[in-house]
Amino acid sequence: MESKNLVSITDFSKEQILHILDLAEAFEANPNQDILKGKVAATLFFEPSTRTRLSFETAVNRLGGKVIGFSDASTSSSTKGETLKDTIKMVSNYADIIIMRHYLEGAARYATEVSKVPIVNAGDGANQHPTQTLLDMYSIRKTQGRLENLNIVMVGDLKYGRTVHSLLMAMKYFSPTFYFISPEELAMPNEYKIICQQNNIPYYEMSAFSQEIIDQADILYMTRVQRERFTDLVEYERVKDLYILHNDMLENSRENLRILHPLPRVNEISQDVDDNPKAYYFQQAQNGLYVRQAIISKVLGLID
Ligand code: CP
Fold first, then answer.
1. Helix, strand, coil percentages in the chain from 3-state DSSP, rounded to 5
2. What percent of the chain has pLDDT over 90?
3. Residue 171: pLDDT over 50
4. What is the pTM of this model?
5. Which of 75, 181, 196, 299 fits a disulfide with 201 by CB distance 3.0 to 4.6 angstroms?
6. What is the mean predicted confidence (pLDDT) over 158-162?
7. In whole angstroms, how far apart are CA 183 and each of 47, 157, 225, 234, 275?
């Protein structure tokens, strides 16, 4: 099986997405294996991360591989002016796979053009976060028993939120109905609404986080308003706390409802939700380990 990159969720077909989810199930049942013995993974994080980097590094360690890299680009030679091109060319001399997060949209795609080894996009600016999407889909399938015909409510920063962009693009195969809840300034970009239109996917946009919408949701996907993407901090202060989910808002919600959040959260999910059985965000992050084991195995061509 050939190795390949994972830069956008569109790099994988519907069948490949489902295959990753099946592989992840097998890794969840048996997370400690030796299939990466002798392999080195580089994690290059030009932007902060807790879950993505640590779950990728755990995935490599649990599969018997070794990890090199940096979690803070200020400790790398990029501070001396080294270009991304040179950094990637160099690291691809050392590692078998590069897992990278970068603040520039398109950085991961560019890296594939200069790398000798597969590139996995761990987030590029406000563009894409495809490995988060695969773990989101794994979490959806695991909690709902299916991916098809779900009411998915996305709340918060839909403009800069790369996780909702990737998730929308992947769920297009599964006949969802989307509800986009955001202030006008943080609305879902047109290009993603066009994808819905092209795929006959109904979507509804609104600025009110109403009880009626919560009560018909199967998945409530909360997101953080991303301060780091704002040039005007006054604007950020104005929108940052517009949507806060409290436990009493879930009283009449569907039995199967699950609350997802890519994390980190700031204020958008009140801590009183954490003990509600419908809160799934911490298990969602745990699922990231198994899904990333599957992704690494797949892009390195180690598993058919
Ligand atoms: N979900 C996510 O990307 O979290 P981190 O920023 O902590 O990696």
1. 45, 15, 40
2. 90
3. yes
4. 0.95
5. 196
6. 92
7. 26, 8, 11, 15, 28
The CA–CA distances, whole Å, from 124 to 44, 53, 186, 208 equal 12, 14, 18, 29
> What are 179's strand-pairing partners?
153, 204
The best mutation among 47, 49, 166 to test binding of ligand 1, ranked by most ligand atoms within 8 Å of the C-beta, falls on: 49
Local structure of 203: helix, strand or coil: strand
Choice from 52, 131, 136 to test ligand 1 binding pocket (greatest atom count within 8 A of CB): 52
Q: Which domains does the chain have, with CATH numbers?
A: 9-128+287-299 (3.40.50.1370), 130-285 (3.40.50.1370)
What is the band of 255 on the pLDDT scale with cuts at 50, 70, 90? very high
Q: Is residue 232 over pLDDT 50?
A: yes
Ligand 1 touching residue 288 (CB < 6 A) = no
Q: Is the beta carbon of 260 within 6 A of some atom in ligand 1?
A: no
Residue with the nearest Cα to atom 4 of ligand 1? Answer: 51
Q: How far is the CA of 262 from the centre of ligand 1 (A)?
A: 7
CA 276 vs CA 7, 53, 106, 151, 210: distances in Å = 35, 28, 38, 20, 19
Q: Residue 120: its pLDDT value, please?
A: 98
Q: State whether the beta carbon of 263 lies less than 6 angstroms from ligand 1.
A: yes
Q: Rg for the chain (alpha carbons), in Å?
A: 19
The residues carrying an active-site annotation are: 51-52, 80, 101, 129
Between CA 290 and CA 20 the distance in angstroms is 10
E strands in 113-215: 119-124, 151-155, 177-181, 203-206
Any ligand 1 atom below 6 A from CB of 52: yes
